[in-house]
Amino acid sequence: MSCLKNKKILLGVTGGIAAYKSAVLLRGLLKEGAEVRVVMTEAARSFVTPLTFQALSGHPVHTELLDPEQESAMDHISLARWAELVLVAPATANFMAKLASGQADDLLTTLCLATTAPISIAPAMNHQMWLNRATQENLEKLLSRGVVCWGPAEGDQACGENGPGRMVEPELLQQQVQQFFTQGALSGVRVLMTAGSTREPIDPVRFIGNRSSGKMGYALAEALSEQGAEVTLVSGPVTVSPPVGITRIDVEQAEEMRQEVINRVAQADIFIGVAAVADYRPSQVADEKIKKDRQLVTLELVKNPDILAEVASLDGAPFCVGFAAETENVEAYAEAKRQAKGLDLIAANQVAAKEGGFESDQNALLLLWQGGREVLPMMSKYQLAKQLVERISEQYHASRQELVNTE
């Protein structure tokens, strides 16, 4: 039986070109047995007619806050109480702004204020609108209130430009809804993690970096989300697309990554440091491009903060998982790192091996914790991530139980 059988989902459609995808999403949810009611804003009706959604769902589409006919059948408070999940897809920048400021000037925003059901949004807008500071601040407000953000995806946009802002494809949104209604091993657990590399500037065009692609970290974020975790990913530059259903914070430098982590770690139950953070940065950054007419250029490097060690040393620190990329004596170096930093679990791999490591789609890991070890053999990074999440979940819940027993 589908996990969506008889689940009550309120689908909000706002005024973006991606509104046509909402019809595909509606059809997929209905096919899985969900009960869906559709609410459309005035702007949404400029892109897709209510008749489309009515024909697909078999139910009247709700459009007006004070429509006497709709009020007699199911008023806006009853509709808000009916829903087990409110999903707004697409969610425009304007809708996000209104929801963040608590406005209730149409049926959809009123329902969002009146409901006690979880609210999820699937943003869709031009990439510059998405990256605009106002939109990002509105997103921060919504996330702090428990609103879940699925997306956006990156790619070609209706305006002809390319970047983050596309609504997540209906099939992937349907998967997210299914995961929402499936209680995973980490359901409700808040995970903060880092991934990717960092770039430490030398001058306006050059930087010190490393070969980390972000593939392992992003696969892990996806696997965590599938187990019900609320994932916030602080990411350096990567070569992979972000998973659906997580909150991603983009940074470049190690200090920026540290600041974003410290700002959020108090709300985390688990912290996972996957990012290949640069150990050093130039002590001075040239204001202009360094010309190549010199035969010798000397860089003075200073040590970057150790984000993982700092988090693990905090009072009331979350369950801490670290990664160790080594070229030799993997187990000895990884165990020394685990003990020195006070980590609950460390995952180590040999990056100089013929298989796995940076940029590869496969990897193998050695897991070490207090009194235990396990080898996860070479496999795809996604499959590896799923197994690693199982071990993290086991160790995390065991540590919580141990804490309860000692109180």
TrEMBL record:
Transmembrane portions of the chain: none
Pfam family, one: DFP
Co-factor: note: Binds 1 FMN per subunit.
Annotated catalytic residues: 159 (proton donor)
Catalytic activity of the protein: N-[(R)-4-phosphopantothenoyl]-L-cysteine + H(+) = (R)-4'-phosphopantetheine + CO2; (R)-4'-phosphopantothenate + L-cysteine + CTP = N-[(R)-4-phosphopantothenoyl]-L-cysteine + CMP + diphosphate + H(+)
Pathway(s) it belongs to: Cofactor biosynthesis; coenzyme A biosynthesis; CoA from (R)-pantothenate: step 3/5; Cofactor biosynthesis; coenzyme A biosynthesis; CoA from (R)-pantothenate: step 2/5
InterPro entries: CoaB-like_sf, CoaBC, DNA/pantothenate-metab_flavo_C, Flavin_trans-like, Flavoprotein
Family according to the record: In the C-terminal section; belongs to the PPC synthetase family.
Protein name: Coenzyme A biosynthesis bifunctional protein CoaBC
Organism of this sequence: Candidatus Thiodiazotropha endoloripes
Taxonomic lineage from the root: Bacteria, Pseudomonadati, Pseudomonadota, Gammaproteobacteria, Chromatiales
